[in-house]
Design brief:
The longest helix is centred in the last third of the chain and has 16 residues. Helix 1 packs parallel to helix 11 and helix 9 packs antiparallel against helix 10. Strand 4, helix 5 and strand 5 form a beta-alpha-beta unit. The chain is an alpha/beta fold. The protein has a single domain, classed as Ribonucleoside hydrolase-like (Inosine-uridine Nucleoside N-ribohydrolase, Chain A, Alpha-Beta Complex), CATH 3.90.245.10. It is globular and about 55 Å long. The structure holds beta-D-ribofuranose and calcium ion. The site of beta-D-ribofuranose has 12 residues, from helix 1 and helix 6.
Amino acid sequence: MHRKKIILDLDTGIDDSIALAFAALSSEVELLGVTGTFGNVDTMTGVRNALDVLALVGRTDVPVLAGKTCSLAQEQFCRHAESARIHGENGVGQANLPRSPRVVEKEPAVDFLIRMMNEYRDGLTIVTTGPLTNLATVLLRDPLLHTWRGQVVMMGGALTVRGNVTHFAEANIAQDPEAAKIVMESGLSVTMVPLDVTMRSRLRSSDAERWRSSGSDVGRLFGCMLDYYIANTLGADETYIHDPSAIVCALHPEYFTILPFHMTVETEGVDRGRTVVDHRRLRDRNPATKVCLDVDAGQVERNLANIW
Ligand code: BDR
Ligand code: CA
């Protein structure tokens, strides 16, 4: 089977961890590396979680690299209380993941991304499930990469629904609107997987129960993490499928209704962090950015039901 070359760029909280485990175990994915960013947790906690998740699923061959530690506009990352509530103090729902003896690679994530993007000019997909700071920094550092012909699939934004941080802004975009604007307007082929679709698909307490009863350590720990996430997000026995939807979209875009739009991001005023169609470009042909507006939720849910 042809496996898709993927790099994951994560702010490893609970749904990022599920996305990572899913990609790491998928026979459809060749996982080239994991780059870490801030958001649900600080960058170093996030890469630590990624190392532990990879060890848990037996993928200690995948390199993990640490990326930017705060947004383009700030000098320091300040974690929102809401992130600690949803993902737990340690980012993985207070689960005691066995500590991986591995350490993060010496190469910075941005250098790694630049190297990989130059090596694979078109045969690579970068899936982002956190703020877009690493990718924006790549473009600022190496403007020639604006002509890169690979794919970016990003979980983030909201087009037809309201945001989940402010009325307008979704969390990953809200963390670094300037970075998101750079990426959206870059000319890279970006597929946005926004709240419009991620909130239509659900993981349920029955999935957590099934994962737990698989008898493996990984199933038990992920079952606990999912229960924690359900209790602190939607409640009522189910939750949205944000980050794992981006992996499913990268592998199976046919499950989604995807429309081309010239997207941009508002960076000023009350709608700072809002993802919108660029009104200046309404008559321009062939947008590089696309937006998922509907999804066959059953397909996404089936993909995630039996990971272990
Ligand atoms: C996004 O925000 C984070 O809390 C989740 O991990 C996901 O990437 C959803 O808005
Ligand atoms: Ca995330």
